[in-house]
Specification:
The chain is an alpha+beta fold and 107 residues long. The chain has one domain: Ribosomal Protein L22, Chain A. The protein contains 3 helices and 4 strands; from the N terminus they run H-H-H-E-E-E-E. It has a two-stranded antiparallel ribbon. The protein has a two-stranded antiparallel ribbon with strand order 2-3.
């Protein structure tokens, strides 16, 4: 997905609670929502693992998305056959997604 399409979805969930954001992403019609949901689930799992290693416990209900951005990744340059033997360039855009979650009180 292009970063432009991803940003439409990421702007909706920035600052939300994790459960609320996952519910919004589940019912979104945008294809980018599936990929963002995967990254969000990974961020939650990372937060749980970090808390477990430090001897703390984290409640998923208290987690909030504190930082969520989409940056442009490398472009895959392809060509599509055009009229009269020409080749038309196509840029397949990729995205880098960053999501940071933290407990509501540690904001």
């Amino acid at each position: 997905q292009s970063p432009y399409k991803m940003r439409l979805v990421i702007d909706q969930i920035r600052g939300m609670g994790v459960n609320e954001a996952l519910a919004l992403l589940k019912f979104s019609k945008k294809h980018a929502a599936l990929q963002i949901a995967k990254v969000l689930n990974s961020a939650v799992a990372n937060a749980e693992q970090a808390a477990r290693q430090s001897g703390d416990s984290v409640d998923v209900d208290t987690l909030v998305i504190t930082h969520a951005i989409v940056n442009e990744g490398p472009k895959l340059k392809r060509f599509m056959p055009g009229a009269q033997g020409r080749a038309n360039p196509i840029q397949k855009r990729t995205s880098h997604i960053e999501i940071v979650v933290a407990a509501r009180d540690a904001r």
